[in-house]
């Protein structure tokens, strides 16, 4: 399943210029507050301005903005939360650790197979 972030509502300035962007969902991962986070690999890295550095971001954590929302193929204009993965060990974890990601933005996404 692929998620195309079509727009960013609230987020860092550099992210607006990089939208739209696409990520392939690797798997669902439960978090401490809800069970439906998605780990996703970007088709092309994003650039994150972190202080005076430009950091490449290759993976995201995504979820619907509201608990109970569903990310499924064919869905369009889904309000989502976007976080950058800052510690790649989260890709192998059984549960999402918020310390391994950086919440970055609200956005809107479309989902394809």
Averaged pLDDT, please?
95
What best-fitting shape do the alpha-carbon axes yield? Answer: globular
Low-confidence stretches: none
Q: How many domains in all?
A: 1
Q: Oligomeric state of the chains? A: single chain
Largest sheet: 6 strands, antiparallel, barrel
Strand content: over 45%
The overall strand count is 6
End-to-end distance: 4 Å
Question: Helix/strand/pairing class, anyone?
Answer: mainly beta
Q: Helical residue percent?
A: under 10%
Summed up, the helix count is: 1
Provide structural commentary.
This protein is 5% helix and 57% strand. The protein is mostly beta strands. It has a six-stranded antiparallel β-barrel with strand order 1-2-3-4-5-6. The chain has one helix at residues 13-18; strands at residues 2-10, 21-29, 37-50, 53-64, 78-85, 101-112. The chain is globular. A hairpin with a 7-residue loop joins strand 2 (21-29) and strand 3 (37-50). The protein starts with a strand and ends with a strand.
Write the layout of secondary structure elements.
Blueprint: E1 2-10, H1 13-18, E2 21-29, E3 37-50, E4 53-64, E5 78-85, E6 101-112
Antiparallel strand pairs: 1-2, 1-6, 2-3, 3-4, 4-5, 5-6
Labels describing this entry:
113 residues; mainly beta; six-stranded antiparallel barrel
């Amino acid at each position: 399943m692929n998620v195309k972030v079509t727009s960013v509502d609230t987020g860092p300035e550099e992210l607006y210029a990089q939208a739209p962007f696409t990520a392939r969902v690797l798997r669902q991962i439960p978090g401490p507050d809800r069970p439906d986070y998605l780990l996703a690999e970007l088709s092309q890295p994003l650039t994150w301005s972190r202080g005076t550095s430009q950091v490449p971001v290759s993976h995201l954590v995504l979820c619907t903005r509201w608990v109970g929302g569903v990310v499924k193929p064919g869905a369009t204009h889904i309000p989502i939360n976007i976080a950058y993965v800052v510690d790649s060990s989260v890709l192998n974890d059984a549960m999402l650790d918020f310390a391994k990601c950086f919440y970055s933005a609200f956005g809107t996404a479309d989902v394809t197979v």
